[in-house]
Amino acid sequence: MKSKIDLVNNSKADRMLLLINKIILILMVLIITVPLLYVLFGSFLHPNVLLTKGMSFNPDDWTLDSYRRIFEDGTIVRGFLNSILYAGGFSIVSVLFSVLAGYALSVDNLVGKKYFMLFFIVTMFFNGGMIPTYLLIKELGMINTPWAIILPGAVSVWNIILSRTYFKGLPNELKEAARIDGASDFKIFLTIILPLSKPIIFVLALYAFIGQWNSYFNAMIYLEDQSLYPLQLVLREILIQNEVQPGMIADQLARAEIQKIAEMIKYSSIVVSSLPLLIMYPFFQKYFEKGVMVGSLK
């Protein structure tokens, strides 16, 4: 009833603006959804149909050969488990340090807070570079170990700033009341701050997990044992193995067959690598909606 009244009270210009906004939102949804659906349906199509006719909804043109070909190799399952280990460990380390540092920087009486913030902010614009970072990882003995994927880059200054902003928005009265009752800073953090910080914790965890899940460059540099490869790097190796290079194969039929296989694997590999993120997001959505606007509050 209220929405109808508001709609009646809106001027003609307001209604026109709302209509334009709805059209823009619908177009944005289509721009995002259509490619996703194309990749999903394309992963089930026979490569001959996909390359010649394009999208087809005829059940006779559908097949599971692409998924069967991917999962025939046990490295996919191992890479999937490795990615869960790396992304999960990376998320835990990132959230732990981001929350602890953010809470410390949100305390008004922290000695040297301005210098700490300056130190953190400088690292957002300057870093050691790839070669010095590689030499550091090597000297620490983390080459060809999971730690080379989990630890480097786990502490994000941007996440620390988001945490600090969120903690500064919490009522100081809660902390003051706890101090009157004799609670220490650590107890206040565990019993009061953390239970109120689920939105920012889940948002930071989601950001860290997605970033690490889609990453393969560090694994390509620091890992030599293929049994430690994450899923993204395993799928990359599969695509490279099934990629046709110019002049590589003289037989045109063999080249066309390999091209069909590569096209078929391309779509199914995208679906396989994106599936965990699509499953996770609905569970994180309610926290994501609360925590995603933290940076715009202060």
From TrEMBL:
Keyword vocabulary terms for this entry: Cell membrane, Membrane, Transmembrane, Transmembrane helix, Transport
Compartments (UniProt record): Cell membrane
This protein's record includes keyword Transcription: no
Keyword Transmembrane helix carried by entry: yes
Membrane topology value: Multi-pass membrane protein
TM region positions: 20-41, 84-103, 115-137, 149-167, 188-210, 264-284
Gene Ontology cellular-component annotations: plasma membrane
Extent of the signal sequence: none
Gene3D superfamilies per record: MetI-like (1.10.3720.10)
GO biological process, one term: transmembrane transport
Entry's family note: Belongs to the binding-protein-dependent transport system permease family.
The protein's name: Sugar ABC transporter permease
Organism annotation: Planococcus donghaensis
